[in-house]
């Protein structure tokens, strides 16, 4: 029988340490919330891309924006580029997995839109290419990353970096950030 590397208390302590470090990123996280709000209220959309657990985060965040978070309010346009199974299988088959998201940004992104690029390593090639394409289309790019931000940090307008190498802790911090962004969107207008 294998043993667990960390006691659950150790996991909680690691989580709390990472979450407490978010206060150092508060100005950038706040600026990103204002950008998301201004993008949405001006009639533009949010596109999101990520791999694995970050893909699930894209879907989660998009659903909160389109449907609602806590308060009833108008629906906002947010598209997780991680959900169309035909695109997700056809593009890598016909072209390359590296350009999977950039192709969708090319098709769906427009000037004034915002791309939220999520990569726990900051080095996912398909996320970097999507960010480059978004910038070419005069979109603003918010990056949610971990570790040292990898190569992605230099390709985005707002690099929000979680200083951890543990994927689970990075994703937990990302969720807290985008849930707070949802709360800020809820405050814009509601019934």
Automatic annotation (TrEMBL):
Cofactor note: Binds 1 zinc ion per subunit.
Metabolic or biological pathway: Carbohydrate biosynthesis; D-glycero-D-manno-heptose 7-phosphate biosynthesis; D-glycero-alpha-D-manno-heptose 7-phosphate and D-glycero-beta-D-manno-heptose 7-phosphate from sedoheptulose 7-phosphate: step 1/1
Source domain of life: Bacteria
SIS domain location: 36-191
Residues given in the record as substrate binding sites: 51-53, 64, 93-94, 119-121, 124, 171
Any GO MF annotation of the entry: zinc ion binding
The keyword Phosphoprotein belongs to this UniProt entry's keyword annotation: no
EC number assigned by the record: 5.3.1.28
Main location: cytoplasm
Requisite cofactors: Zn(2+)
GO cellular component terms given for this protein: cytoplasm
Keywords of this entry: Carbohydrate metabolism, Cytoplasm, Isomerase, Metal-binding, Zinc
Pfam families: SIS_2
Annotated compartments: Cytoplasm
Coiled-coil region list: none
Catalytic activity as recorded in UniProt: 2 D-sedoheptulose 7-phosphate = D-glycero-alpha-D-manno-heptose 7-phosphate + D-glycero-beta-D-manno-heptose 7-phosphate
Top EC class for this record: isomerase
Quaternary assembly: Homotetramer.
Homology family: Belongs to the SIS family. GmhA subfamily.
Other facts noted in the record for this chain: The reaction produces a racemic mixture of D-glycero-alpha-D-manno-heptose 7-phosphate and D-glycero-beta-D-manno-heptose 7-phosphate.
Biological role: Catalyzes the isomerization of sedoheptulose 7-phosphate in D-glycero-D-manno-heptose 7-phosphate.
Protein name: Phosphoheptose isomerase
Organism: Methyloprofundus sedimenti
